[in-house]
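Hey,

Quick one before I head out. I ran the complex with aspartic acid overnight. Inputs first:
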Amino acid sequence: MAAPAHPLTRRIVIAMLAGMVLGVSLNLVGVADRVQTMLVDGLLKVAGTLFVSALKMMVVPLVFVSLVAGVTALSDVRALGRIGAKALALYLLTTALAVSIALGLAVNVGPGQNFDAGDSPARFSGKDAPAFSQVLIDLVPTNPVAAMAEGNMLQIIVFALLFGVAVTMSGKRGQHVLNLFGDLNTVIMHMVEWIMRLAPYGVFALIARTFASQGLDLLLPLAAYFLTLTAALAIQALVTYPFLLKSLAGLNPATFLKKMRDPAAFAFSTASSGATIPVTLHTLEKKLGVHNSVASFSVPLGATINMDGTAMMQGVATVFIANVYGVDLSLTDYLLVVLTATLASVGTAAIPAVGLVTLTMVLSQVGLPVEGIALIIGVDRLLDMMRTTVNVTGDAAVSCIIAKSERALDQATFDDPHAGLSDGSPKPAPAASTPA
Ligand code: ASP
């Protein structure tokens, strides 16, 4: 079958660029009140918010149904423990690597050394991160319906895993439930595809509005911080993940990065790895050939606990704030930053700007003033968009590596440049394959 003339991905990329051009122009020219009300706070806001709401609408049903279907597709329950252990180990490893790279770069570049903090914006008051014991206690939902209503991802994962295991152990009756969840999964994926077809409009509206309201002039005094972090994020996405994919799974990194363009665009424009879950799952299963039994578990888990980009921001921000306040960090301090930023990434919610809140944990750990966060808030939105893109890419890379090691990655789909291409025309859902 020939590739469609305008695959969705290309339309999304064009929409992003057009959104940037419109947003930056509106920002530079300065808009009249009427344009601001009708276009920026009217049309663009409504279209962008509707799009993000539609994505979020799919997250809980998709994660629950897909995870139950995924667990029941596993040949034995032990595989579940293995996948979980690999996911946890790789997520922690990639995050620790990410912070180390960010710290190494920041220490060498030294952002913030000549920074004048004289007219810094209002003070920042951070919220405390939850205690680790509470995180453990909260893993088991007292009410699964409440967990779903609140979108508590870890609780939904725990309930879905237990439910899925029970389904497989319930013999013939469980088989009916299993078939039902398999069918539901196909139906929900179909709905996700509808939203993906609307992506060019949603992405355009989100990006245009962000750039219209984010003055680029804020960037200049913080250019060193901004550029150091951007470079660190680029290294993680373009060097670390490709290296891990190649060395641990023998997968072609160029194919991976090319196929990750849709989730990357969604993550960039929404700044929320949580809202991007449906697209990440769709891409992994339909384009990269990762079996549902791995993707349905590793993606929501990764979106919740694996935030490599966020941890990198925390590393660079710590060095920047230390430089501004003239504090010398010791080697122990740096090690503490790696440790706390890795743990903070586990506790960071997959929604915009939360990384700044958990940064308070890292700063207090090394005795830096939490108010320093006020210095970087101004440029955080743009950096949030970039780090979320890295967060999502990291989840997908780890999913591919686990799938490959579990023989749950369909190499033919991974290699096929046209796999899962959506041209906007409805097509029958392919039958799910089972892992070898
Ligand atoms: N926006 C990030 C995410 O959703 C979290 C953060 O760093 O604020 O992945």
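DSSP finds 18 helices and no strands in the chain.

Talk tomorrow,
K.
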